[in-house]
Amino acid sequence: MSVLDTDPREQVQVLAEDGSVVEGATVPDLSEEEFVEMYRTMKLARHFDQRAVSLQRQGRMGTYPPLAGQEAAQVGSAMALDEQDWLIPSYREHAASYVHGLTLEGTLRYWMGDERGNKLDDLNIFPVAVPIASQVPHAAGLGMAANYNDTDEVFMCYFGDGATSEGDFHEGLNFGGVFDTPTVFFCNNNQWAISVPREKQTASETIAQKAIAYGIDGVQVDGMDPLAVYKVAKAAVDRARNGEGDKLRPTLIEAVQYRYGAHTTADDPSVYRQDDEVEEWKAKDPIPRMETFLRDRGVLDDERVAEITESIEDEVAAAIETAEGFTRPTTDSMFEHVYADMPERLREQKAYLDRLQSKHGDEELLE
């Protein structure tokens, strides 16, 4: 039986919270190097996140959406994609995008207000989607196009639990099911849609079971278990690409996890949740869980962990230096990097801003 045939009310897990392998679970067939890369990338994402929040607090970067706690879901799922596959992010998929080829400095530049950071030439990554769930029907449409063109790309679309309350989510899954698209719909259920808790989003026992309404399979996975996420995502990607008997190719994955930090750096989570809840979820942290697994297998020791930590700190520091070293973006860049060919309405807006700058000057207008 495929892991995708698991009852959507049951959670797939490989690693227990203490890093041991769950009884009866099968560890994914990855090499030692791939296991270490999974671990390193999660640690990199956590350190990058800490530095990015610090940069924002220092006024060196704009509003930023932290990802701490969600590393396993992002890294495990993105590692299941092949190079030709497409990643369709929301606005928090910094780690997933890194796995699929986006540089750290590119992510930094975008959140520093430079639209050139969202310029994704030669990468199979869609631009950041800040409007909630707007990317879900896009992913279904991309899958339809792949069907028409008879190509073998798979489209991995990320969104949060709050997105499942939007009409776009239902429309996207309906199109995916009707047109049997090679799409993996990946829900990062981090328990909070800004300040709205999971139980106020839906009366469904799980989000995964919503797939039943659209004739596709849904599976719930421990989103803080990188091996379980990889296992489920790889099965979904393989089915989307190759088919599997009479099963439709799309899959809805619900990765149950937690957002340790704020929704964005403009948010104060202490207003709507308790510290005890955060600490309870931190006991499930994916990074020490994966580290314990690798230490038990003799793959990691103190020396190698120290080497990885140092290399991560160097890589993030270099990315920050590079991102801050770029020429400060002008107001023109807000318009120049949105469309390949600027439409008339955008030219009108640019002309209006040019007139304001000419009348008031940059210092008066921008400071």
Task: Give a structural overview.
This protein has 367 residues and is an alpha/beta fold. The chain has two domains: 3-329, Rossmann fold; 330-366, no CATH class. The protein is built from 13 helices and eight strands. It has helices spanning 32-57, 71-78, 94-99, 104-111, 135-149, 167-178, 226-242, 275-282, 286-296, 302-325, 333-336, 344-360, 362-366, and strands at residues 11-12, 86-88, 155-160, 183-189, 192-193, 196-197, 217-222, 251-256. The strands form two sheets. It has a six-stranded parallel beta sheet. It has a two-stranded antiparallel ribbon with strand order 5-6. Helix 1 (32-57) packs across helix 2, helix 1 (32-57) crosses helix 10 (302-325) and helix 5 packs parallel to helix 6 (167-178). The longest helix has 26 residues, at 32-57. It is globular and about 70 Å long. The relative contact order is 0.17.
